[in-house]
Structures are given as C-alpha cells and as structure tokens.
Amino acid sequence: MWLNPDEVLLKNVLKLWVTERSNDFFLLQRRRGHGEMATGGVTGLLVGALDNVLDSTARVTPFRILLQVPGSQVSWIIASGAAIEEVNKHWDWLVHNLLHSLSVFENKEDVASFVKGKVKGLIAEEVQGRQAAQEDDPGKFREALLKFEVHFGLPSSEKLVTYYSCCCWKGRVPRQGFLYLSINHMAFYSFLLGKEVKFVIPWAEVTRLERVSTALMPEAIRVTTRQRQREFSMFLNLDEAFGVIGQLADIALRRLLDSKGLELDRVLQQPARITKRILEEQAIREYVLALFRLPRSENLHEVASCSVWTPHARCHTAGTLYTTDSYLCFSSREEGNLVLLIPLSEVLSIEKADSTSALPNPVIVSIRTKKAFQLIELNDRDELVENMNSRLRALQWKRSMFRSRKEGKRSLNVVSQNQDQEICVCLCQSTDQVKERLWEDHFSEFGRGVHMFRTEKIQKLVAMGIPESLRGELWMIFSDASSDLGSHEGYYASLVQKSMGHNNLATEEIERDLHRSLPDHPAFQNPTGIAALRRVLTAYAHRNPKIGYCQSMNILASVLLLYAKEEDAFWLLVAVCERMLPDYFNRRVIGAQVDQSVFEELIRERLPELAEQIPDLSTLSSVSLSWFLTLFLSVLPFHSAVCVVDCFFFHGIKAIFQLGLAVLEANAAELSSSTDDGQALMILTGFLDQVGNEECPGFPSSSPAAEETSCSVAKGHTNITDLINDAYIVRDIEQLRCRHRIRVLQAHEDTTKENALRLVSPDVSIPPEKLADIYDLFKVIFLPSWHYCDSNRSFIERQYRLDRPQFKSLYGLLVPWPDVSNQHTDTLANRTFTLLDQDCDNLVTFRDFASWLDTLYFGELNEKIRLLYCLHIPPGYSLCEYNDVLLTLTETEDDPSVMKSPLLSTNRPLYVNLPPRQCKHSEFIQFCKTLYSMFHGDPEENELFQAIATVTSLVLQIGEVGHRGKIAGSEANSQEGSTAAGGVDARKGSRSSATADNEWTVSYAQILASLLTEQALVNFFEKPLDLSAKITQAKESQYQQRAGLLTLQRASS
Prior knowledge:
This protein is an alpha+beta fold.
C-alpha cells in the first residue's frame, strides 16, 4: 500500500533491510530475516519479534519501497506491503509511470516533491469513500485495516471497527500483539520470536465477558466461549476496550438471536455503518435515554458543556446539555445533583442574548408557562441554536397540522373523561397534609411540571412517599408520559374505538385476568373499574401487537388507574412497557431475565458474605423476578408498594435494584442459615408482608378490626421509607445490562438447541452427542450467510434452515462417500437439497437434514438404495413435485415393492416412504455412475466394480426386454386403432403417444433385486460407517470451507 512519505536516514536503512531491486530513484527492500528459509537464523527471529512488540508504525512490514535522490543521505518510505506481489505492483507502476519523467528534472528537491505529491494523490484516491476516511487518523487506520485483511483473509464486507494493542495470555505466557474488532468477529494476531499466533472468535460464540484481576494480570478482559476462555491485558485504555467489546458482542447477538424481541436502533441495523465513533455516540445515547427516561425513538444530536441558571441556588450550575429530536436535557457534573428536562413541545423560542464577561455566550429558552431558562458558556453557540430552532420549527409545524384534525375527535375524549371521573372516585380519601405542603413549597421554589429542577431535595420527598392527590400528576411528569399525552390528542380514544369488538389471544387473556387485578380493592369490584381496565389493556394490545398482553400488566394498569385518569393511565403504561422496562413484557421476558442476571452480580458485589453462603444465587433471583415484573406490587402491602412505584417513576429501574438489595441485606443472616429454597422464600415473604408505612395501609378493609391489626403489625416492623433510604446506590445499569444480555441470549440459544435435539432424537438413530455436534455444524454453516448476505429473514426465522449453497457446503463435509468428481458431487448435492425441501421454500430444516444423514449412516440397505434411487429421478423428488407423479403411478396395495416394503416406517422421513416412479435409461446410467464414484478408495474396490458392472448389465437386459414387450404391444394396439379410425392423422397420433408410453424404464424393485444378487454390494451398504470421524474432520475444516464465504485460519497452539 502507498504511504505518506516519511524520511529515513539511508545509513540506518541497511542494518535491518536487504535491497532486492533498485534504480536511480527507487529501492525495493526486504526486511532482514523475512523470506530467508535457510539462512534467516537468529536475525530473522529477533527482527520479527521486534517488529511485533514495538510496531509503532507500519514501516516494519516485510517489504517496502524507498524514494532516493542521488547524492543524498536521506530517503523517503513511499510504499510497503506484507507480500512481495503487492510491492511489485507498486514498483512496476513507479517504473512505467514516473521513472522516465524523473530523468528530466535538474533539481533534486523537485524530484522529491514531484514523487511525494504523486504518492499523496494516490493515497487520497484510495482513501476517498473508504472507511479509513471516517477515522480520526485515516493513515494509521488504513495500515491496520490492511493487516487485518492480510492476516485473517475475511471477506471484504467484514468491516473492521477498531483495534487495540494488547497481550493475549496462554497460561502464564503472554503474547503481545493486536486485537482487531470487526462487526462479526474479534481477531488476535501476534508474531513473537518466530512464533505466529492468530485466531478468530465470532461474536455469536461469545457467552460471557468480564473483567478479571489476578497476580499476573492486574486488569484483564476475559472472553468466554463454549469451547475455551481467552484473557487479554495490557490495554492502553482498558475501560474503552471493554466497552467496545461489550457493545459489539451485544449488537451481534441481538441481531442474530433476538432481532424481533430486542429493538435495535436504525443505525445499528446496518452493520456496514458501524464505526468506533458511532459506538461511542451510541453509548452516550443509551446513557441519556436511561438518565432522562426518553422514548427509544429519540436520536441524540448535540452534547455540549454549559452552565444553567438555577434560581433556587442563585447561581449557575455547570453540567452538560444533551439535545435530542424532541427534548433539551441538562445534567449537572455530579450526577443526581441537578437534572432538567425541557420538551420542545413546551418551548416557545430559543434565542441568543448579548454576551458579556459575566455571561459568555448566553442562550435563553422560553417555555409556554411564561418561564425562561438561561444557558451560558456554550461553545459553537450559533450552530447549536440554529440546529435547535430547526427542530423546534419542524415540531411546531407538525403540531399545527395535527391540531387541524383535533376537533373531529374531541367528542370521544369527553366520554373518556367522564369515565375517568368515576374511577378516580375510588381513590383513598385520606391524604397527608404535611407532605402536600412540602410539595407545594417545592413547586414554588423549583418549578412545577415536566421542566421542574430535579435536585437531591426532590429525591428525599419521593422517598417519603408522594401524596395521593399529587401522585398521578407526578407520575406523568417523572415518566414524561405527559409529553406523549400532549402530542397525541385523541389517540387513545381512537384506539379504544378501533379495538372494540376485536377478539384474539390477547383479548382472551385480558378477560381472564380482569377480575384477578387487585380483587380486594373496591375500585375493581364494580363494572366501571373493570371496564376502564379492559379498555386500557385492550387499547395497548392494539397499539403494540408485538407485546400484546402479558401477565402482570393487569396489576400495573390497575394501580395506574387508581391514581390517574384513564387516558393518563394508558400513557403511563406505554412509558413503563416501552421505555422504563424495555423487553420485559414479551413472551420470553428477555429484559427481566437480563435484570435478574445483573441483580445476581450486584449481590456478589454489594453483599459478598451472603453470596459466599449461597453460591447458587438462582434461588434468590427466581424469588426476585416477581419484584421486577410487578414493581413489588404483588409482594408488599399495597400502600408500601405504591411508595416503591413512586421511586420507580423517579429513579427508573435502579430503584428496584436498590430496594431488592436492601431487602436481602436486611435478611442476610436468616438467608445464610436457610437450608432449602422453600425456607428462603418463606423468610423473604414474611419480611415483605410486614413492611409497612407510617400512614398505615391504604386498602379499605372489610372490617375495622382487620385494618387495626394490619396497622399495628406494620408499625412494629420495617418502614418502607427507611428501607428505601437505606438502599445501596446503583449506577451504570445500562453497561451491566449490555454484558449480561449476552449471557441471557446465549442461554436461550442453548435452550433452543436442547429443544431441537429433543424433537429430532426420537426419529433418528444418531447418538445424542453426535446429533449435538451435527447441530453445531449446521448452525456454523449458516452464520457466514447471515453475516454477509442481505436477507430479509432474521436468524430466528431461519434458525434451523439452510439454503442451497449452505446445504451443499455441509453436504460436502458429511457425505460418507469420497468426492471423486466435483461436477457429479455438485449434481447429487443439488438433487438431495431438492428432495429434502419438502416445503418448497428453498430451505432445508435441521430435522430433515438429520433424517437424511441418519439414513446414510444408520439406515438399512434398502433404505439407502431407495434414497439413491429417488435422487436420480430428476430433479430429485420433493413433496410438491411428487403430488403430480402420484397420478401416473400404477402400483397397487398388492405390490410388495410399495405397500409391504419395510421402508414404510412412521419414523422415517416422508421422502423415503414415497413409492418412486419408473427410472428411465439416462437416469439409470447416472445412478450407476453414482455407485461407481462411491466405491473409489474402498479396500474392496475391484470386487465392487465387478459387481456393479454385473448388476448394470442385468438391469439393462431387464429394461430392454420390457421395452421390446411394450413396443410390440403398442404396435398391435396402434394398428387396431388406426384400422378402426381409417385415417393417416390417427396413425400419426397413435405413434406419438406410443413413443411417449414405450420409453425404456425399470422399476425400483427390479434394481433392488438385482443389487441383492451381488454379495459385495450387500456388504458395502451394510458396512457400518464412522460418523464420529466424519464430524471430527468437518469441525477441522469448517473454518476453511464456509460455502466460499469465509476462510478462517486455525489458531496456532
């Protein structure tokens, strides 16, 4: 590759380099020790090790070209390469295009300037449009990209994202090299003292990522696959490397294993666009969405340091401004001290003010409530304000267009509001006047509404419990559901109207759970409350059919209806299901399982003594699953649980993590001494039942005595406010989720594999461990096509199916007979694919593939012959094609070759059971060629050839006799028919039909009977085949042979 010209002293050049070619202006040199097979000696080893360890630039590639000016001691490196062929191309270009022109220059400096300008022009053309141009250091990235391509031989579409210098450990031996991270793989290369080590790990095989610390490795990254572990250390920036590795593994697995259940951002759905910069922006975006609980559809635009005027503190607070599609967000430098969220829908104007020494680069943001926010110290203020105003104008235009349609829907909203009032009557009448007064004071000082200043003071107020009169309003503010409500006027009413009368699985489950939602509460003991709950749940199922309805949504919606109007409750449910608890409410509850895995890690980190006493934390996580799914509503007394919901809407999911840790810490001693899972469950259940509130429970009880009893119990035990205040502070939830999602998805894949094997195992004779190996081979063959091909179907949709090229690749790895003729093998593979494609969708399932392989390796003689026979009736019968053939079959139930054949087994696949039609002459010849190819390399090769020759001759004679008989009979019938018709045209027609009916054919039964006459053939087909050896060979060659799409070089041991 061409390099930016770099000076080098000529006297130092010859120490480590050997000149291979030269002329008056250029030198082609080889690195000393490279390419010296017999004479390299210690020099080559030392130079190679030095190149790999130091490797500060790409000038240590084995070959390079220097520009030299006669009489000068200074030269310039202008090209380098890992292979002599590459450098020779550059050399030839220089000789043919520049050498003659340089001879006319009289000034030496002009020669150097001319050549350097030409080389820079070549580099600019090469870089233009390529990924390197997007990097901070395009030249250095180009060099790394070339090494990545040369070392690993991956397809050109395998995009390199970034790379790191690091050390890979093998036991106690470190290997210094480079770790390359691409969109589908992580790859490592090292060359040290003549020992080359390189390996590739697909992200799809990563099961665990973690940071470890040992005596040898103070800080290291451990990457675990199903086969082994790899440790990497000595990163210049381990935090950055660990974050990027986690992001790439998470993205790849989400696209691969759960593309429907886990929504990816638009930019991540196009792997070719992923760069290191995009990953960094994505990490910031995830942080912002989680911190401010914004909709997943929001895109992050600008991040700027600034200060905001805080009236309550009478000063400017320094922090960071984040701008998205629909929001202005501010967070102080110390997270949690000050948070400000301003929806653009509330903004009237964004204007620049005059800059002064006290107020540099000020910006005034005016909102609808006649309030303004002042931002100062904004860099690039003009561009930032212009961008924000552009989005504001677009939003205002959209709202004005929507407002014109609002009148037609207003009548529906009136009905909804009337129904809301009936539900809200059921709220508990007692409120805490002291708390209300505190909140009113807070509103007057920090503002009211979604754009209030959120400080540590509001956190304390939330922990005390929100007054019931303000609960619905503040839930709407903290979750920002109020913005959704304001921007979707009439949306809920239209959903209710559209969903009326629809019956599906979701509505049936909703009807079944309606009366199980807070059955003791008066609000849901009457038709009004049940009807409102039905409308909210049904409307949401209609809005989001991917989620539809899941259990625990009824409990959550019931609580929301108690404190918010019906339409408000709907938007609160939207916020919880789609933003605050992503991926919780679906069939596989991926999000909840990820958080349970995160919770286990937090237990080990924050409660190490408890984790030591209970090594298997799955028991605790199984108990805590309901805590997360229902926000403690199903396990705590109602009034205490509602306080938890208050904290959840303010803090997000970390409030549930913190409270869960506090509960376990309070019961750590009892849990450590528990003897079984049941006892641990009783301990936690008993504790949670007695967590009370200082105001006493809020459910109106059926009897005053019961209410008095529950009140006294609560007062004598743990107070929910104290429990919340004593909770651990949990941060970086999103980073933990990213890493633990990898484990959960891989666990789901393991379960899917077990289910697939369980379904296939009863129908085949392949041992379970070998069947599992075949499944792995089947899956790995699929992965490259998923990586590099543009397919509209996700991996889940095609999980156990291979297309034709993939099947042919796996066919070549596992077929038991030798590959003598590539053309003949390719024909057989195509016919086998067609035969197995019973659904006619150009895909073969794992079940069909395993059944076919079972027939080849463990089937009876007649099963194998029948399968081979079917393959030679072009194009290889599938179920679709066979339906047409059934009309022409003449076999009856009395034919022993059909109905009484032992092949009619219910355990065998359908293509074996189908009775094949007659075989034509050309098809029989192909059948014989296949048998000949199968016998090559067999110890009894000569006997088998003689036997098949005898069988072929016998079958040909049988076919010929039958053919003559058909012709004779046909001619007799033809003469009778023509005499009766008395016309020439009739004779011509009868001859053409006779020609079609009288072709040379033999039946499967005739071929099978002929083969059974030769004992050598019988012995060959009944001989046991070693599937284990074939699987082992397939594993060894799989990385070199992935349907021509991927070539991976095995790691050096």
